[in-house]
Structure formats: structure tokens, C-alpha cells
């Protein structure tokens, strides 16, 4: 069978994987990179039902951070120290809220240096976010109880007070709370 031409590949990425034309251009810039994306997309098929943005997330990581690491090392995608399957495993941890995007950069660097299993690195470095709602509820209640004046400020319309309360909750959790959940819980408690 004829190899798929770059333009056909580009169209397939747009139609099948819902990529923007710009992202599809970047993914098909080299045969190696396109192949890496195809393998990643294949590995992501089992998670895309749960995380509809998985293909876009992978594309942006491949075009961004991973391309950066390869550039620095002067390597093609076919020589990547990180396999498509490992990359999918790492990005699934961001998509499911286990770790933040910031933590994922740290894990990616360590994977690049030879620690292949993202879960082992997350565990070893203590990077797991607290997404347990009971634990987060407790942290948020503690912050509200300790800061009555900021609570009053927020209720009288001072938005800045809210950011300060979020900051305190993040600090209390040593930066490990899932910020989106903290926001939701605090808003709910403050409107109660």
C-alpha cells in the first residue's frame, strides 16, 4: 500500500483527532513526529472515552515540551527517550487530576533522564494532588475558620479576598490540593 502522504495525514488529524489546522501542520512537520503522534493516539484510545481532550492534550505535549527536550538533545522523535505509551500514561495523570501540569513537567524531565514509569516518579517525589473531596472540605473549612475578616471582605464584594483564601488553602495543603476543586468548595461554603 502507498505510504500516507503528509497532506492526507494532516487532513486525518483534523477530521479524526479533532486537531486544529495549525496543530496538524506541526504534527506532520516530520515523518518521525507524525509517527510518534499516531502511536500515542493509538495508546490513548482506551482513555479518550473518559477524557475527550486526550488527543489534543497529547498533540500539545508532543509539539511543545517533548519537541523541546528532543531539540535540546539534537534527536529525532524516533530516538525519543520517552515512548508514546509512557507519554500517554503521564498525560492521563494530568487529565484525571492526579497531578498538576506544573508537576507533569517535572515528571517528564525525570522520565527523559531514564525514570520511565510516571507513577513511580509521582510517588517518589510526592507530587500527587489531593483530590479527595473529604480532605479538601476539611482544609477549606479550616481556612475559612482561621480567616473571618477575609470571609467578611469577600461577602462584602471584595473579590481579592477570595484569591487570598484559595492561596491559604493551597499553602495548608503544601501546594497539593487540586486548585479547581478548592475554588469550587470555597465558593460553595462562602455562599452557604
Order of helices and strands: HHHHHHHHHHH
Shape: elongated
Radius of gyration: 21 Å
How confident is the prediction overall: mean pLDDT?
Answer: 93
Number of strands: 0
| Through-space gap between termini | 64 Å
Structural class: mainly alpha
Low-confidence stretches: none
Largest sheet, described in full? none
What is the count of DSSP helices, taking H or I runs of 4+ residues? Answer: 11
Indicate the percent of residues in helices.
55-70%
β-sheet strand percentage: under 5%
Fold and architecture overview:
With 192 residues, the protein is mostly helical. It contains eleven helices and no strands. Helix 5 (84-95) packs antiparallel against helix 6 (101-112). The chain is elongated, with a radius of gyration of 21 Å. The termini are far apart.
Amino acid at each position: 500500500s502507498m505510504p500516507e502522504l503528509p497532506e492526507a495525514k494532516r487532513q486525518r488529524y483534523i477530521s479524526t483527532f479533532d486537531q486544529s489546522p495549525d496543530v496538524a501542520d506541526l504534527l506532520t512537520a516530520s515523518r518521525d513526529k507524525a509517527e510518534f503522534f499516531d502511536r500515542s493516539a493509538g495508546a490513548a484510545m482506551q482513555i479518550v472515552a473518559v477524557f475527550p481532550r486526550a488527543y489534543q492534550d497529547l498533540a500539545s505535549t508532543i509539539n511543545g515540551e517533548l519537541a523541546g527536550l528532543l531539540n535540546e538533545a539534537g534527536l529525532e522523535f524516533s530516538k525519543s527517550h520517552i515512548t508514546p505509551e509512557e507519554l500517554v500514561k503521564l498525560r492521563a495523570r494530568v487529565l484525571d487530576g492526579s497531578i498538576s501540569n506544573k508537576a507533569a513537567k517535572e515528571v517528564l524531565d525525570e522520565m527523559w533522564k531514564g525514570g520511565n514509569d510516571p507513577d513511580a516518579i509521582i510517588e517518589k517525589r510526592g507530587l500527587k494532588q489531593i483530590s479527595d473531596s473529604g480532605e479538601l472540605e476539611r482544609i477549606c473549612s479550616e481556612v475559612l475558620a482561621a480567616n473571618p475578616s477575609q470571609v467578611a471582605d469577600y461577602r462584602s464584594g471584595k473579590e481579592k479576598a477570595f484569591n487570598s483564601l484559595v492561596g491559604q488553602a493551597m499553602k495548608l495543603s503544601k501546594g497539593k490540593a487540586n486548585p479547581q476543586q478548592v475554588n469550587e468548595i470555597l465558593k460553595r461554603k462562602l455562599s452557604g
